[in-house]
Amino acid sequence: MMAALSTPAWATADVSPSSSIGSVEPDVLWKVVIGGIVVCAFLASVLIWIHSALRRTKRAQLRRNAFISSALNNLSQGLMMTDASNRVVFYNRRFLEIYGMSRADIPPGCTGRDLVELRRQRGLLKLTIEDYARKAREPDGCLTELPDGRAIRAKIFRLPTGGSIGIHEDCTVQCRLERELASTKQFLESVIDQVPVCVAAKNIEDGRYIFANRAFEQFSQMSREQIIGRRPGELFGDETAANIAAADRAALLAPGTTHRSELVVRRGDDKRILESHRVVARNDKNEPQFLIALFDDATERRSLSLELEKTKKFLELVVDNIPVSLIVESARDGRYLLANRRAEIILNRKREDATGLTAADIFNPREARLIVARDEAAIRKRGAMTEEHPISTKDGLRLFLTRRVTVMGESDEPQYLIKTYEDVTDRRQTESRMAHMAYHDGLTDLPNRAAFLQALSQMIEACRDTGEEFAVLNVDLKALKDVNDVFGHAIGDKLLIEVARRVHAVARGGVVARLSGDEFGLIIDGKQPEAGRALAEQLAEAIAVEFQIDGKSIRTALTTGISVFPHNGSDPASLLANAGAALFRAKAKARGSITFYEPEMDQQIRDRRVLHQELSVAIKHGELSLYFQPQASSGRTVDSSEIIGFEALARWQHPVRGFVPPSDFIPLAEESGLIVEMGEWILREACREAASWPKPLQVAVNLSPAQFVHGDLVGLVHSILLETGLSPGRLELEITEGVLIEDFDRGVSLLRRLKALGVRVSMDDFGSGYSSLSYLQAFPFDKIKIDRAFVMNLGRNPQSAAIIRAVIGLGHGMNMSIVAEGVETPEQLGFLAEQGCDSVQGYLLGKPLPIDKYDGIVGRAHDDVVESVRKTG
After folding, report:
1. DSSP string, 209-241
2. Along the chain (873 residues), what's the average pLDDT of each consecutive run of 10 residues?
3. Cα(64)–Cα(57) distance, integer angstroms
4. Beta bridge partners of 339
5. Dist CA 419 CA 92 (whole Å)
6. Pick from 72, 73, 106, 94: nearest CA to 169
């Protein structure tokens, strides 16, 4: 059985090779074979078809790859691709061109990291590989500047397969344009930032600011970051936002592209006025897109404009009211362009009618020729010209001070001629009188000491080296003080006038002068001493005749001292001093005597030295005292004249000599310099006394010229005011023109510093000096004191009244008050009150007395005591 299982069945059967193969039929076998062949052929054809299809697909893929490769190689950007293993699988030609590489530079199997390192080695990248990879994956990519100046921006993107693609773009032109654009933008913004006008731009669609320059920041007091992106309503108050919106609407509705307006805005609590220009910017469809506002803070300019207008009106008002005539004419044709109201006096017509006319149209031919000639001379000079000439007016021929000034135009050619005319007729008449007064005594109209010394100097020059002689007589009038004390100064003054008349008559037209209160000086030529003695005797005889004055009989006499040229001196001062020494000896000998100078008379000088020493001791030991003389407002009567202050006067009670007149020791103090120490004592005592008065009355103190020269006068006054507690406004410092004669500039400077302390400054003895008018122009005095000589002569000499009127008018015209000294009669008081004199001083109002005699006036006694003192005064 085992054998049967292991042996094939067909091996045991009987097989016939010729008819069958085993048990299979031949035709079946052929069919099987043929079927197998068919199947094989089919499979072969299928394989051939698959192979053909694969080849076609591969060719298509190659063509597609070639197309893609060609397209990628022709891109303007460089491409570099890596697979998931970071191996470089593709890079195009542009990539190689950008970095100046060839395919041979990139070995097979190169990774992206190797390629970046290759660029680093060639200096094409300065970043580390990590920094480069990080920046390249950012949205803006990594911008690299190559050594040749090109700028390459690289961006790396991840692929879904895990690889990456790098895009490298040459953006050199774009970067340059961006830099240029940024530079241009920065330049424009810088320019606009430097513009001093505020500039702001806003989007019309939403009204938000899109630009603001630095000026806008400064004006709004907000930063640019706070402004941009916000609307006006978010930045400013409701009122300001509404005004801005109204200006915006007006600009949008305006027919042109620009609109000018003014609007008021508030900046905190401050209201500002803006001058605005708004420009509407339109798009290509002519639709409004942006609104640009340019505005300037016109608040100060508007204020200045209003101030300018006010100033213009003020100047017009000033020009119309200046106290001189003003005319402006064209330098080209001489036609009048402007004239003030005062000029109508000269033009003899209203100023409106003079506009456009010339001098030939206005003045008579002779005056017109003169005026035109002087105008042309001033224009040729191209500077200032000043002259005086008469002009006919409705009030007659008047003298005018004319000043011409040429105004040059932009082409440096004369354009205008400005002329001022000042009527100086009255002033010149006053100055003429003042010039006469400078060398003449106001009471007797005789030459004064200055004129006498001048004449004496001329006489010396004429006689020097000729052998001729002449005598100088110093004549003293006896008992003048007694006449004043008994009959009053009015009678004493009339006596002086009569004495002067007789002396002048005896001198037969020779040189006669009044040297001081009761002293006269004469010069006589001829053989000496005979001629001098003869003249002295004739004078004594003439004066010995009794005087009849106002019904009173008065007798007096002359005492004469004589010096002879050249024996007793060769200069005016020596001759006059020696004549004075002889007079001093004559007085000591006997009143009415005649004495010639002798050398031993120098003892008088020694005596004066003794008096000087005693005066020095008196100042130190308190022998001096102060008397006070009232100053009152000018009323028509004494009762209506209210006391407003006092003048402090020094008095000396010598323990041996007795009462020493101020006329003796004040000049001595001036000559010796003791006046500085004495003046300080007087000032301190006067201020101390005045500070104690219950009533705040004025106190006046005289200052000597020597006090201005020695020491710190301003500091002294200031310290005394602080020490005594006296209000500066109550102190009045009286000076004479001697303060200004020595050193004008220094004197004026000190006076201004004194006035700055608050004290009042007055000019004493006005009219008795040489150049008072020029001093009044240089310094604004508070008060002018008319010299007593003019007041004493009222009613006898018409010139005195005229001079007083002129001085009052002059002072009031310069805003200075006037006080008259030496008032001793009701008639004098009435005249001064009628002429507008502000205040008066004199024996009629009260004598100089110790202050306790005036306790009632200063508020320390009853009124009946005051009245008693004024009546006895």
Report:
1. EEEE-HHHHHHHTS-HHHHTT--HHHHS-HHHH
2. 37 44 69 82 80 73 62 78 87 86 86 86 86 87 87 88 87 82 72 75 85 80 84 82 84 78 77 79 79 78 77 77 84 88 83 86 86 88 82 79 86 87 79 74 89 91 89 90 78 92 89 91 91 93 92 90 91 90 82 85 69 84 92 92 95 88 84 86 95 95 86 91 94 84 76 92 74 70 88 83 89 91 92 93 94 92 52 47
3. 10
4. 327
5. 96
6. 94
